[in-house]
Design a protein that fits this description.
- By secondary structure, this protein is an all-alpha fold.
- The chain is rod-shaped and about 45 Å long.
- It has one domain.
- It has 1 helix and no strands.
Length: 32
């Protein structure tokens, strides 16, 4: 159970990081 929960947490964290990266990219594009 702990392993599965850890995997799910990692996936959610990765998704959050990807969203932040995409948002920063869009902000940079719009800033230019």
């Amino acid at each position: 159970m702990t392993i599965t929960s850890a995997k799910s947490n990692n996936k959610t964290s990765l998704v959050a990081i990807i969203r932040e990266n995409t948002l920063t990219r869009f902000e940079m594009m719009f800033s230019y």
